[in-house]
């Protein structure tokens, strides 16, 4: 209980949060109703009951379906603002937020609608809560390189508020190499690079993300632990890993929270951070993720302070802003 109170008030940054994954069932119902979108659920309980997954793809199918209720700029503003309201309660001071433009543009929602709405929510959160934030544009890796290039082109007018590009969706069979050229183009435009790797995919995908995408941060990275030479490389490079404990449990990346790799990552000298990934689907926001580890592992105050500190030093904030948070 003492440790829970410490975690609650610990200032933190969130570095791995898909805004579409913060769509709560109640909100899904409300947006469906106000937009006249039919969803295949009769109640909030019905939706929650569908959130049982054996692997990443089970989740992705439901997650892309849920996103269909998002139609207007107001929807995206409200979605972002609801996330920040939760984040503020969890002492989040800064967030670098993933969004999946292709999920929306492929069903006829303009990139501009998504961007304007999210930026409005971000501006309102900075005004009301003092939370700073940037967006990270994720390419859907199950789609092709050409579609990723088209998405990068659509982002051009908004690059001043987009910190970087990322890579998400189904990992197996869609290795980082598929997006080497689009990541090089993003780098040329001054964007930072991150990628989901080693969540379900093998350690070789993490190596590709380093060598072929030039990533500044590694999203998940769990399976890197299978390769000692890769662990050594990540530790020496000071690479930040954005790890998501409740997501790992829900998607069966780990079988038991007591066996979660975060304690091992810290012991190996890896710069791990704790994040919520898709909180509406995985059972909790960032403090729930910290608390789940507190309840099931021997991590203590000093470890959680290190993990929170890593979230700022691993962020894309300028050095003087990072210093202000430490
Ligand atoms: C995701 Cl947990 C996870 N992995 C890959 N892609 C994603 N998109 C949203 N959540
Ligand atoms: Zn993720």
Summarize the SSE layout with pairings:
Elements: H1 2-9, E1 12-18, H2 25-35, H3 44-49, H4 56-66, H5 73-89, E2 92-99, H6 101-105, H7 111-129, E3 132-140, H8 145-154, E4 162-168, H9 180-188, E5 192-197, H10 203-213, E6 217-220, H11 228-237, E7 240-243, H12 245-250, H13 262-267, E8 271-274, H14 279-282, H15 286-296, H16 301-313, H17 319-325
The chain binds 6-chloro-9H-purine and zinc ion.
What binds here, in terms of ligands, is: 6-chloro-9H-purine, zinc ion
Q: Helix proportion of residues, in percent?
A: 40-55%
Beta-strand percent range: 15-25%
User: Could you say which structural class the secondary elements and strand pairing correspond to?
Assistant: alpha/beta
Query: What's the story with the biggest beta sheet?
Result: 8 strands, parallel
Rounded to an integer in angstroms, the radius of gyration calculated over CA atoms is 18 Å
CATH superfamily membership: Metal-dependent hydrolases
Number of DSSP E strands: 8
Uncertain segments are: none
Q: Tell me which CATH architecture applies here.
A: Alpha-Beta Barrel
Order the strands across the largest sheet as they lie in space.
1-2-3-4-5-6-7-8
Distance between the termini: 24 Å
| Total helical segments | 17
The overall average pLDDT, rounded, is 97
Give the CATH class. Alpha Beta
């Amino acid at each position: 209980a003492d440790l829970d109170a410490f975690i609650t008030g610990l200032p933190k940054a969130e570095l791995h949060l898909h805004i579409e994954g913060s769509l709560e069932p109640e909100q899904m119902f409300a947006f469906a109703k106000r937009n006249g979108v039919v969803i295949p659920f009769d109640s909030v309980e019905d939706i929650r009951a569908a959130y049982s997954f054996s692997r990443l793809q089970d989740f992705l199918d439901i997650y892309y379906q849920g996103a269909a209720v998002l139609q207007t700029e107001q929807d995206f503003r409200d979605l972002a603002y609801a996330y920040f309201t939760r984040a503020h309660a969890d002492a989040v001071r800064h967030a670098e937020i993933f969004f999946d433009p292709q999920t929306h543009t492929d069903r006829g929602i303009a990139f501009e609608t998504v961007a304007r709405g999210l930026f409005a929510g971000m501006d309102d959160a900075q005004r009301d809560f003092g939370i700073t934030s940037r967006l990270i544009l994720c390419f859907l890796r199950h789609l092709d390189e050409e579609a990723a290039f088209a998405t990068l082109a659509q982002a051009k007018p908004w690059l001043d508020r987009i910190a970087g590009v990322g890579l998400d969706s189904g990992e197996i069979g869609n290795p980082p190499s598929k997006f080497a050229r689009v990541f090089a183009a993003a780098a040329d435009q001054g964007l930072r690079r991150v990628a989901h790797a080693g969540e379900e995919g093998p350690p070789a995908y993490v190596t590709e993300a380093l060598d072929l995408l030039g990533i500044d941060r590694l999203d998940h990275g769990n399976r890197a632990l299978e390769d000692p030479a890769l662990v050594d490389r990540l530790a020496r490079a000071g690479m930040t890993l954005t790890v998501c404990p409740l997501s790992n449990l829900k998607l069966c990346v780990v079988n038991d929270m007591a066996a979660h790799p975060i304690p091992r990552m810290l012991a190996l000298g890896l710069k791990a951070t704790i994040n919520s990934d898709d909180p509406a689907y995985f059972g909790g926001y960032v403090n729930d993720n910290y608390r789940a580890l507190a309840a099931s592992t021997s991590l203590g105050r000093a470890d959680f302070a290190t993990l929170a500190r890593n979230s700022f030093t691993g962020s894309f904030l300028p050095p003087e802003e990072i210093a202000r948070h430490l």
